[in-house]
Structure formats: structure tokens, C-alpha cells
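The data are set out underneath:

___
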Amino acid sequence: MSIKIKLAVRDWDYIVPLALGDVRAKEIDLEVDRVGTLPEDLATDPRYDAGEMSMSRYALGRARGEDSIIGVPHFLMRAFRHRCIIASKCSDITELHQLAGKKIGLTGWQDSGNTWTRALLRRVGVGIEDAQWFVGRLTAAHPIVDRLGGYGRPGRIEATPGERPMMEMLQTGDLDAVFTPFMPPGFFDADSEFRQLLPDFRQAEVEYFRDVGYVPGIHLLGIKPAIVEANPWLPQALSELLDESARVWLEKRAKYADTTPWIIDEIRQVARDLPASWDRNGLEANERMLTDFGIELQAQNLTEKRLTPQDLFPAFAN
């Protein structure tokens, strides 16, 4: 007899084999709900048993002593952050250290991705005290919500004036750069007014990987505790199921190479620049990444205590 699980995940390409039923596990009757916006609070959302959630939100909850979600060291979203810093094409800023003393916009202060992006600046000597930060909505189409999360500081970390969209502020020169996980509409058009701040962000990301040995984790898998208590095998089984879906998806992309005209070259470049284990899940495989994330949370004053990988995932610690 199988257990029925409803899973909330973003509409990632690699989820398709799982969503279509091409990948199954006999012990799990899995319903995949591909969502545009992740549940606000997975622990209290009656619709789902498990789901994708912010690694930062989960970590900050653990720092507060919360145990309403069992976190699994399976990272549904990983992403380099160099590409996530954008500027106007009129700007002469092309290196991270040049952001010292500048006005920088972010889509959310405590977000996992923005925490990793601020870490990039810390690596080149640009700390929180070395820039002026504005937190707000990316475009007018995005909702006006609290994006400071209680971390605002007058004169240093503030909401955008009048809730102005940050892309408008970037266009008018009221911001020098914006951190965003997803590019705004029209960003990739030939006549776009905007660009990635780093001209060769891909090379910067490859060099970063060679230095740290990981692609930063952004979102992880969370499961409600009662379900895990009744089915202790579930976290590992669900992680393996997601891994298999990703494997099948990539195998098909190598055969049906039509997602873009050059995706076959992208697959070749990834194999050249990164080891096959670059997206491996599990606590041991991600220990350095999780250690660094804990260091950043404390260094950026998001947590008082430095969280260890074992603090984050006690159920998976030896």
C-alpha cells in the first residue's frame, strides 16, 4: 500500500517526468502541484504534505527553535548569483568591488538568493555597511508587500521610496544595481536598456565554483513532521524520486535537443566546466555549502548564532 503525498513545487523543467508519471515510486502516490508562488507557510498550509521552500526561511526558523517542518538536504533550486546582479547599459560599473558606496536594490532582504549575492560582495570587501540598500518590488506588476522582514535600518537598509519599482529606479539612475533571481520582462530583448552587471558572468561563476566547490542552494525540500514520523523512510525516498526525475529530464534533453537551438552546446559546456556531482543532494555532499550559508547568515546579522549543517538538518546528522 502506498502513501498519498501532495507536493508543491515551482514549474521547473526537471519536474516534468515526475508530473507526467514517467517517474514513479510504488510506495508513494505522488500528486505534483506546479505552483507559480510557493506556499507562504508550508507547515500550516492544508493543501500540501511536502514542498519546495526557501532555504533562508527554513534556516531562520531553525534559528528560532522552530521544528514545524522537516527539512531535507535536497535542493530543488540551485543557482549561481553573479548573473542575478543587473545594471543599466549606461552604467560604467562592470566589477563587483565597484558597488562600494553605491545604491543597490534587492527583491527581499532575507531571501536565500540575496543572502548569497551579498556574500559575493563580501568576498571582494563590500559589506553591508559599504553600500546603501533599498528593498522593494522589481516591477509595477509585482505586489507591494513587506520585503524587509524586520531587518530594515534607516539610512542603510530601507524600503524603496514610495514603493517605486526598482527597474524604474535603475532606469532613472536612482539605483546603481539590482539583485533579482528572475529577470524582468524584456530584459533579454536586443533593445533592452539593462544588462548583467558582470560582462562575463559565466566565467565568474565557473571561477567561483572552482574556489568554493558548489552551486549555492536556494530552495530545499520540506515535509510535515507528522508524515515523517509515520513514514521515516519518506524523506530519502522522495529525494531519490526527485533526483530520478532530473536524471530522466536531462537524458531526454541530450536526445531531443530542441529547447533552444544550442542547448546541446550548453550540456557540453556544463560537462566541461563542472563535475558530474555538481548537483548531488544529501547532507555530506553539501556540507561546505551549508557551512558557508550558516556563516553568511550570522555575518549579515540575520541570525545571532552560526548555524551548522547539523543544526539545519538534525534528522540527517550522524
Summary: DSSP finds ten helices and eleven strands in the chain. Residues 2 and 27 are 4 Å apart (CA to CA).
